[in-house]
Amino acid sequence: xxxxxxxxxxxxxxxxxxxxxxxxxxxxxxxxxxxxxxxxxxxxxxxxxxxxxxxxxxxxxxxxxxxxxxxxxxxxxxxxxxxxxxxxxxxxxxxxxxxxxxxxxxxxxxxxxxxxxxxxxxxxxxxxxxxxxxxxxxxxxxxxxxxxxxxxxxxxxxxxxxxxxxxxxxxxxxxxxxxxxxxxxxxxxxxxxxxxxxxxxxxxxxxxxxxxxxxxxxxxxxxxxxxxxxxxxxxxxxxxxxxxxxxxxxxxxxxxxxxxxxxxxxxxxxxxxxxxxxxxxxxxxxxxxxxxxxxxxxxxxxxxxxxxxxxxxxxxxxxxxxxxxxxxxxxxxxxxxxxxxxxxxxxxxxxxxxxxxxxxxxxxxxxxxxxxxxxxxxxxxxxxxxxxxxxxxxxxxxxxxxxxxxxxxxxxxxxxxxxxxxx
Length: 423
Prior knowledge:
It is an enzyme of class 2 (transferase). Residues 126-419 form the Protein kinase domain. The chain is α+β, with helices and mostly antiparallel strands. It is 41% helix and 15% strand. It has two domains: 112-202, Phosphorylase Kinase, domain 1 (2-Layer Sandwich), CATH 3.30.200.20; 207-421, Orthogonal Bundle (Transferase(Phosphotransferase), domain 1). The protein contains twelve helices and twelve strands. The strands form four sheets. The protein has a five-stranded antiparallel β-sheet. Strands 8-11-12 form a three-stranded antiparallel β-sheet. A two-stranded antiparallel sheet has the order 1-2.
């Protein structure tokens, strides 16, 4: 008779024969640890399967949402950048005043632009209206700020150095002048897809000098007024103002008709200072921002094309500006309408180089062949055009040291204008 007693850890069996336990094969029940281990394995397999299914589904959802967001952004571009948290507190500070009022209140004595907080407040409240121009740097928009038109130059992110440099130059102490494009604010803005770099300036509805001359002619008074205003603006840039609130001398380095704006009164304002160089009078060094931009090849002076310009001598850059000014005066003079006779608008060297000339092509024409824009014979019979011809010839001498200064050009044109007014 066999009796058996069991518990969870051992088994006892009794018998009455010899060696009766030789072939015992008692059933072994699984321990609690084994059961627990099998349970854990089962749970992990379940989680692993769930993750394997869920992760790809989530990834697909994220990709679909991203594609949808990009599609909607392109379909309905964000033109408004409201920021209620900034706009509300600024209303008591800026309420009831125009940009001109603020500039007069905050820049008297410095002429270096608005405080940074005010600049940001204005930038956050601007509504973009329409595109008015495009360039290698980005786009120019007409914007509205409390009923006023402003120009918003939006730089692409790869042009951050140009944006920073131009904003820095515009905020130079004592730079503000009637014939320099009026700077209002600079800010970087996130439109939800990428960061935009904004430069906000005065808006001039007549557009650039290039655009204006393409569609309009000028009389002799208008020609002298335009030329004098550009020379005055350039002379102010080139001038060093000594004193506690002094201004360093600045060279433009990319002067051309597309970078000059025409105001409603027929005068002009010089803009686009992204390539400008400053003279540090204390160390007698030239402050030039290193970036990938170069000046416009068509307007490059001979010494720039030949790479013989002395980069350590600031006057070299001023003389290169004067060369470009001479070409701009030629563009204006061609559109002077006297007795119904005028020339069609053309860029300098239009008959000698292609529309987008290379450095080598310009070097051959300007430096080797010593060519300059042609001056019609009829200009010599009209006093105003004769004066302009003389000035422009003295601007584009091959020898940079022989060229007139911007201040001398300003005085020559001002003297002619004064004499003409007395007639």
